Structures are given as structure tokens and as C-alpha cells.
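Progress narrative, Year 2. Work on Short-chain dehydrogenase/reductase SDR from Aspergillus oryzae advanced from sequence curation to structure prediction during this period.
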Amino acid sequence: MSPKVALITGASRGVGAAVARALAADGDTSIVLNYGSNPEPAQSLIQELNSLRDNNTRSTEKPRFQALKANMADRADIRRLVSQTVQEMGRLDIVVSNVGWTRMTDFANLEEADNEADWDRCFNMNVKSHFFLFQECRKYLEKTQGAFIATASVAGVKPSGSSLPYAVTKAALIHLAKSLAAIAAPNIRVNTVSPGVLLTFLANSKSITGMNVVIDAGFSL
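Result:
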């Protein structure tokens, strides 16, 4: 059995790194880790994933791990990242779209929320980048009947969080994923999640799509 292939964006630290560890521990998934500028955390994570793989491999072929640089705010970089992933790994089964942006503000302060640059950057990173990544991955995920999972936030469900632009654009991301799930069915499953262990479950489930799974982990993205 050959390993599945997962692409995780924003994978060097935090939620992206946790998802990579969970998939590596599962023992049958090759992983491409996307990073934005500093390769050192991604390379350090690869060493950790290699140890997890060696202890848990279930495939006849050993899963491989690779780090690729890409600016997820740049459509050309997104296209190159996906193309390079498929060239290096041969296929694409799982995409964890994990990038996002916010500026820490007082959520209830409308004067702080009245910042056009914040609205534009939040929409670009929290909505558009996920759609563009889906578009570039779509033909590959259709071939493998794969899964596309975007990291949302409880701020997109209940008005809260680090800023009003962030909460609104996370809500937009949840609706985007539900729309993509309806459009891409039955070949691609599309879901959104808050941080938690269910990311691995959703990547492998054959029946769940169009869902936003809220996981109370004591924090939100």
C-alpha cells in the first residue's frame, strides 16, 4: 500500500505542525509542509516526523516528508506549491489549508475595527487564499477522491475573537467551505474545523463533507 499524500499550509508551527504530527503518527501519509519565510522550524519538524514515521509506518512504502516555501497570499506561489507537491510526491489526497491572519484588537471597539487595511488583509488571507488553494488542488483531489480541510475558528461561529475583520472573514470561510462541499461533491470532501484531533479523522472519513466542526480547545485561531 502506497502512502497517501497531504499538503499542509502554514505547517511550521502551531496547528499546522500538530496536524503533521498526527498524520505522521498514523503511519501511512507522506506530507509536504508549507512555510512562508523561515525554513528552520519546518526542517526541525521534518526530523520529528521522521522519528514518528519510523515508529508507526503501516505502508509498504515509507512515507516521505518535505518542506516547500510559498507565499499563500500570492496566487502564482500557490499554483507553484501545488504543482511542485504533485511532481515530488506523485499524487495529492489531503489538503489542510491552515493559513490565516489577524491583528490583535479590542473586538468590541468599532473604531479599531474601522481599518481598511485590516479588512483587506483578513479577506485575502482568511478567505481568498483558501479558495485559490482549492482551485489549484481541485483536479488532483478529484482523481483521489480526496479531502480539503480549512482551519476556521469559533470566532466565525460566535461573534468574538481578536478582531471584527477576523471574525467576519472566518465566518465567510465556513460558508465558502460549505459552498465548495456542495459544488465539489461527491469527489471531494470539504470541511472546516477549529484546532483539534478531529483534523485527522476528517481527512480520512469518506462520508463527512460540508461540516464545520467546533472543537473547544480553550483557544481559537
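Residues 116-144 form the longest helix (29 residues). The helical segments are 14-26, 39-56, 75-89, 110-113, 116-144, 164-184, 198-204.
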